[in-house]
Amino acid sequence: MSNGLISVLLKNLKPGTSAKAHLLAFRPKPVTVELELVPEGSEPYWVASAEGTATRFLMTPRVRGLTGLVAKIAGNQPEPFRMWIAQGEAPVLIRFEGPLYLDGPEWRIELGAPRWKK
User: Fold this and answer.
1) pTM for the complete prediction?
2) Is the Cα torsion angle 85, 80, 33, 105 positive or negative in sign?
């Protein structure tokens, strides 16, 4: 299980590779969710005059099995979300876009320093 460790998993992925992890969704009856971590590309960012590159990852959660089939039919599969990881000696999460909980609103969380457009 990787609850709370998704950004750590992404920071330790080799460049260009995908991975799968599992989360425990705390519902009235707990459900295991498969999470696919896929790099979508890279984006430049700037801190003052220094330029860096962040890898954008798409995380797609899926409930599997009979519960997942029912969730898919009912339109209740969890929404995908994205994280940006800055490359370098010490990779770091610099941006997040997605819901923080099931059926929650989409949030954008990012550091104050990076600019995404020059």
Assistant:
1) 0.82
2) positive
d(CA 80, CA 45): 23
Measured CA to CA, the distance from residue 19 to residue 59 in angstroms comes to 10
Domain ranges of the chain: 6-110
- Cβ atoms of residues 20 and 9 within 8 Å: no
Report how far apart the first and last C-alpha atoms of the chain are (Å, whole number).
Answer: 39
Q: How far, in Å, CA of 25 to CA of 101, rounded? A: 9
At 39-53, the pLDDT tens digits run: 999 999 998 888 889
What's the sign of the alpha-carbon dihedral 80, 33, 40, 42?
A: positive
- SS3 state at 1: coil
Amino acid at 62: R
